[in-house]
Specification:
The complex is a heterotrimer of chains A (328), B (542) and C (316). Chain A is an all-alpha fold and 328 residues long. Chain A has 15 helices and two strands. A two-stranded antiparallel ribbon of chain A has the order 1-2. In chain A, helix 4 crosses helix 9, helix 6 packs antiparallel against helix 9 and helix 11 packs antiparallel against helix 15. The two termini of chain A are 19 Å apart. Chain B is an alpha+beta fold. Chain B has a five-stranded mixed β-sheet with strand order 3-2-4-13-7. A three-stranded antiparallel β-sheet of chain B has the order 11-8-12. A two-stranded parallel sheet of chain B has the order 1-16. In chain B, helix 9 crosses helix 10 and helix 18 runs antiparallel to helix 19. In chain B, 54% of the residues are buried. With 316 residues, chain C is mainly alpha-helical. In chain C, helix 6 packs across helix 8. Chain C starts with 7 loop residues before the first helix and ends in a 14-residue tail after the last helix. The chains are: A mainly alpha (328), B alpha+beta (542), C mainly alpha (316). Chains B and C meet through strand 3, helix 3, helix 11, helix 12 and helix 15 of B and helix 3 and helix 7 of C.
Chain lengths: 328, 542, 316
């Protein structure tokens, strides 16, 4: 690709000619502008929206350092320094418990829940009957649209201690199947609920990636006598690897968020020890009383942690040869 | 602090109950009582005068109680003489528990209300569950409508009221309320909810302070030989145990928490705070509370509670009740007619209620006390003439049961939205929708017991009320404000509920309750206590 | 093939060449029986796990109080189905109006969102271009930091959007996640195509319109679906920014029907419950009504990310 000015490597290091270097750099800038101005124009609407409706209100996060009261406004509320952050940093054992729970649940979700839509997409993809494939996929995504309130109620009706399954078991004197209200099984309970609700919906993006795999590659692999497993390993998976890595990085960036409404609804019978996660802890210890400052403070901390995680995961992806979210 | 012994507790309670009742019956008089109900803000509360002139079939013995009517008073007349507005506009922000009503342009009922008001009443509202967010953003945004509902706990409420709203003391206190005869008909206890810093800040949405009722399926108890109206704790336990049959997937009750409250009430323990000589004690600190906890745990161990009781929603508990899975349910007093309605579909359904019993022969039970006001409506700062205009509109909205204004707001326009059967208005489906406009949450009269066509239900509701009101637990925090309570009360309450659930679910022993109480005290309970004591000593007669 | 774009004739020819849907392509080995059977069992179980609760939801929306009380909640089968719950919700015209608001907001919003997202994603799909990294990072960070509810409200208010339906669209018209996903797919477009187009003198806009977009139908369909669902389900922004209930979208209006999820339960005697169908069936009817429009349009979108569309597109 030709640009206006060619710069020899090291040429700019000549100490005796700073003016010349300036011209060259400015020339390079002008050349890039000339080349990329259409791209920048294309980016303008999106950037404006993000600045106006995201970054501008982000300035309001200054309330993280205030005892914010709506009727006083930002200018009228007291400045309290870091005391809103004490919810996180005061070493409260309940906070640590919540943090540990959160990390365990994230790990479980990344290890067991994240791969499932991929596997399901691959299974669907291997179906020959196009109509059956579409129909199956259309059924499996449905639970995504149920609210958590309904999903919890459904689970309880089916698997609750007084639910249909146990009613039948009891009348047949077969004991009971207890999953609701058992603290040790709580993480299993919510994980299975997440799997049921979102796996089908999450396959969509992988199916889209799979649909773009160049069929010539399969033909070439077949010519090389590769069976279905080797085709999977050498053609399919590498083709969707960028999407998988991308989504994994974004998911890791969100590690501290593991579900709020779902857990809040079911905390009652198992107690805080087993069920408290970061978001519910902050809710129960700050937001529930209308403490806007605390909620902003925690949002900031989560954001910073998320940035570190995303950048870290991205670098890891680079080390493995992947493009990741962004490359150098 | 030592837990009060039961003797001093009962002595204090009965004195307070008597004094409280005397205070509110006379409607005034701070100086004559030692009880707490008559103390707070008594010199500024509006003088109570019965509003309206519809003669009720059932007249309550307590000024807090609702009147009962078997039929709608015939030939309703206007309670308010001339229209309160003269062409102006009033805006209001409120909450609602109802579905969205058709907008004004499609709503002849609303248009007619505007006509009778002589101007325009524009109401914007949000679902009650989300009202806190709408309220916060509206206040933060700075453009307040003329009327704003204060609902739920709000941080720094006194400061907020002083900054943005009007002090209504001079307009409504004492005999000044005579300018607004319908507002004078709101119960004195409900006015106490609007008192902050010895001033009146709004008009209350008055309710009967009976929070919940223990319903029972009388049909499922009949013939079993179990005590359908238990008179002491032993009979109560026997009833619960007898109604349970796990193999058939039937449990006595689906709500361990409310059962605990009932047992605690049978011991004479009120809902939250007890005041004695200026000192406040929380109910959770009493040994009697631990006793009630132990009893409830014993019942839980005996398996009388539905195993999903702690995670169920109210909807589910009601469904269990109607289907017979749990013959006992704790529901809101206001929902009486609903249970009857749901039960009408179930063959044999007969609704009964469990009266408050005494723990043993020596106990004096109390009935848990709810709030006398669900919320209150504050008036945004404005010129005195404007404030008077707004208050006149509120007065119109508070036109009592039996008036033509009430008929319009709740039933609509004859021929269009309802028709008379005898003197009872029966609403058609169009009327069902049009009347969903939340007038009653901006301002409304004292409710009345009125179940057209169901004389027995009205009578049952009335009887329950009459039995419960005399033994209502006193609430010394009425009219007092604690900032820590507003900021941390919900959070502390959640921790206590968590500890309580742990005990009832069998995860922790009853003895762990003391640790939970200590945590509560250190987490803010002591601070709340100190704030209430401070406010109490400042508020009373000097 | 001279140009890179298929003509109609070529497309028709390609479709004729495509194997019938049940035939396996030449490169695929024969699928062993046990694998097909296992797959069938797995998918059948999964579908049942999803369908049975949904059948319960639909049945409950049609069930009378008697059956709901008897079952104590959800019913799987009712002998006297009735549309009473639907009629109750739709009467009064409020829900119908909210429905049309939702449809308009979703349609306009999705189109706007797709336009902005495609443009931004494409602009970011040229690593090395001017300001590439700053804009990309700026976009990425919006995923991690969320502004609070009150600052959002104040911003929207400052821009004069309160009580304006645009407040349901503009603040969320660009979603960083969708941008990043779409960018990732754009980056997959083989560079030979874009390079050769540049040599032919095509500018960025032409490349976007005639090369990248036609090859990215799958991701455009998927991102469009994501946006559409988000607009359709939105209720919180309406709660904050739209004081007039006449402008409320469907989800917020439907939310007001479900009274008893609040802790108050039956504590408040609401005016409307005197003769309404049971709460459970109303709740389920609401759910069914929210899902049906998506069910209807989904097949149209789904065909864009099925296999088979790209056969022959790149072959010379």
């Amino acid at each position: 690709m030709s640009s206006g000015i060619k710069v020899r490597p090291g040429a700019g290091a000549d100490p005796g000619a700073p003016a010349a270097r300036e011209t060259r750099v400015r020339g390079q800038l002008a050349a890039r502008w000339h080349r990329d101005r259409v791209l920048l124009v294309l980016a303008v609407p999106g950037v404006i929206v993000l600045v106006l409706f995201h970054y501008l209100p982000l300035l309001g996060n200054v309330i993280a350092f205030q005892d914010y009261q709506p009727f006083l406004g930002i200018s009228g509320s007291d400045f309290v320094g870091l005391s809103n952050f004490s919810v996180i940093f005061n070493g409260d054992p309940e906070f640590l418990n919540a943090l540990v729970n959160t990390l365990i649940i994230t790990m479980v979700q990344v290890l067991f829940v994240f791969p499932l839509p991929i596997a399901l997409a691959l299974v669907l993809n291997s179906m020959l009957n196009e109509r059956a494939k579409r129909l199956t996929q259309s059924i499996l995504y449905l639970p995504h649209f149920l609210s958590w309130v309904i999903v919890v109620a459904l689970f309880q009706q089916m698997f609750g201690n007084g639910g249909m399954l146990n009613e039948w078991l009891r009348s047949a004197d077969l004991g009971t199947f207890q999953i609701i209200g058992v603290p040790e099984l709580f993480k299993l309970l919510i994980t299975s609920q997440v799997i049921w609700k979102d796996t089908g919906w999450s396959t969509i993006i992988f199916l889209a990636a799979l649909s773009k795999v160049d069929l010539n590659l399969y033909e070439a692999a077949a010519i090389d006598r590769a069976g279905p497993l080797r085709q999977l390993w050498h053609v399919t998976l590498p083709a969707i690897r960028p999407v998988i890595v991308l989504l994994l990085i974004l998911r890791l960036g969100d590690s501290l968020t593991v579900g709020f409404e779902q857990i809040l609804l079911q905390q009652g019978p198992v107690g805080a020890q087993a069920s408290e996660v970061l978001d519910t802890y902050v809710y129960n210890n700050g937001i529930i009383g209308g403490n806007w400052g605390v909620s902003a403070a925690v949002g900031l901390v989560k954001g910073i942690v998320g940035v570190v995680l995303v950048l870290g995961a991205n670098r890891l992806a680079h080390a493995m040869g992947e493009r990741g979210v962004y490359s150098k | 602090m030592d837990a009060l012994s039961r003797r001093t507790l009962l002595k204090g309670l009965s004195a307070a109950a008597v004094a409280g009742a005397a205070g509110s019956a006379l409607g005034c008089s701070a100086k004559t009582t030692t009880g707490t109900s008559g103390r707070i803000g008594a010199d500024i509360l509006p003088t109570f005068t019965q509003a309206g002139n519809a003669a009720p079939a059932l007249k309550s013995a307590s000024p807090l109680g609702m009147s009962g009517y078997f039929e709608y008073p015939p030939n309703p007349v206007a309670a308010v003489g001339k229209p309160p507005l003269s062409g102006g506009r009033i805006s209001a922000l409120t909450y609602t528990f109802d579905p969205v009503a058709p907008g004004k342009s499609d709503n002849p009922l609303w248009q007619e209300v505007d006509k009778r008001l002589g101007g325009r009443l524009d109401i914007t509202y949000a679902p009650a569950a989300d009202y806190a967010q709408r309220f916060a953003t509206t206040v933060a945004g700075g453009d307040l409508p003329d009327l704003v509902s204060i609902y739920g706990s709000v941080q720094q409420l006194p400061a907020l009221l002083k900054a943005k709203f009007t002090d209504l003391t001079e307009y409504l206190s004492g005999d000044a309320v005579k300018d607004y005869p319908n507002l004078a008909g709101l119960s004195t206890d409900s006015w106490r909810k609007t008192v902050y810093g010895n001033a009146l800040w709004g008009v209350p949405i008055a309710r009967v302070p009976i929070p919940s009722v223990a319903w029972i399926r009388a049909d499922l108890v009949a013939g079993t030989g179990l005590p359908a109206q238990p008179r002491d704790i032993a009979e109560f336990k026997a009833l619960l145990k007898g109604l349970t049959n796990e193999r058939k997937s039937r449990w006595a009750c689906g709500d361990p928490g409310s059962t605990l409250t009932m047992i605690a009430a049978s011991l004479g323990i009120p809902g939250s705070w007890i005041e004695d000589g200026g000192k406040f004690t929380s109910n959770i600190e009493l040994e009697e509370y631990e006793k009630a906890l132990a009893d409830t745990r014993e019942l839980a161990d005996a398996g009388v509670f539905h195993p999903d009781g702690l995670v169920a929603s109210n909807n589910q508990r009601n469904d269990w009740f109607t289907s017979g899975t749990t013959p006992i349910v704790f529901g809101g007093y206001a929902g009486w007619s609903k249970y009857e309605m749901w039960g009408a579909e179930v063959p044999g359904f007969k609704l009964g209620s469990l009266p408050m019993f005494g723990y043993d022969a020596a106990s004096k039970p109390v009935h848990p006390r709810g709030s006398a006001a669900q919320a209150f409506t504050a008036v945004t700062q404005a010129e005195p003439d404007r404030v008077r205009e707004v208050l006149r509109v509120l007065d119109w909205l508070a036109a009592p049961f039996g008036s033509s204004e009430y008929l319009l707001r709740n039933f609509g326009i004859e021929g269009q939205t309802f028709k008379f059967e005898g003197s009872d208005p029966i609403v058609n489906s169009r009327g069902q929708n049009l009347r969903l406009v939340p007038f009653g949450y901006v301002c409304g009269p004292t409710l009345a017991i009125y179940d057209p066509g169901r004389r027995d239900v009205a009578q049952a509701r009335f009887d329950y009320q009459e039995a419960a009101l005399p033994i209502l637990a006193p609430d010394p925090t009425q009219g007092l404000y604690s900032e820590t309570d507003a900021a941390k009360g919900l959070q502390l309450g959640k921790d206590l509920t968590d500890a309580r659930n742990g005990i009832l679910a069998g995860r922790a022993p009853v003895s762990s309750w003391k640790a939970a109480v200590t945590k509560w005290r250190n987490g803010g309970g002591d601070k709340i206590r100190a704030e209430y004591q401070q406010a109490f000593s400042e508020a009373g007669p000097k | 093939m001279t140009g890179l774009l298929e003509t109609t004739a070529e497309r028709r020819a390609r479709r004729n060449r495509q194997p019938a849907s049940d035939e396996r392509p030449a490169w695929m080995g024969r699928q062993p029986r046990w694998a097909t059977a296992a797959r069938g069992v797995l998918l059948t179980v999964a579908c049942l796990a999803v369908i049975v609760p949904f059948v319960a939801v639909v049945m409950t929306s049609l069930a009378p109080q008697r059956d709901i009380s008897a079952r104590g909640g959800l019913v799987l089968f009712t002998s006297e189905p009735s549309l009473a719950a639907y009629r109750a919700v739709l009467s009064g015209g409020v829900v119908t109006r909210a429905l049309s608001v939702s449809v308009v907001v979703t349609a306009v919003g999705t189109v706007l969102s797709l336009a902005c997202t495609i443009m931004l994603a494409y602009a970011l799909s040229r690593p090395g271009s001017l300001l590439h990294k700053p804009i990309l990072l700026m976009t990425l960070f919006t995923l991690l930091f969320n502004p609070g509810m009150i600052p959002m409200y104040l911003t929207v208010k400052q821009l004069g959007l309160i009580d304006n339906l645009a407040a349901l669209i503009l603040p969320v018209v660009v979603n960083a996640f969708n941008v990043i996903v779409m960018r990732s797919f754009f980056l997959e477009v083989p560079s030979e195509l874009t390079e050769s187009a540049k040599l032919d003198g095509a500018g960025e806009l032409r490349i976007l319109t005639f090369i990248v977009l036609p090859l990215s139908k799958a991701v455009v369909a998927v991102v469009g679906l994501f946006y559409a669902v988000a607009y359709w389900n939105a209720f919180f922004s309406a709660l904050l920014y739209l004081p007039s209930p006449e402008k409320w979208p469907l989800q917020l209006v439907l939310r007001t029907f479900v009274v008893n999820q609040t802790p108050l339960g039956t504590d408040e005697l609401s005016a409307s419950t005197e003769s309404l169908p049971p709460q459970a069936s109303i709740q389920m009817a609401i759910l069914v009504m929210s899902v049906i429009p998506i069910l209807i349009i989904y097949p149209f979108i789904q065909k864009h990310f099925s296999k088979g569309l790209l056969i022959g597109a790149v072959k010379g």
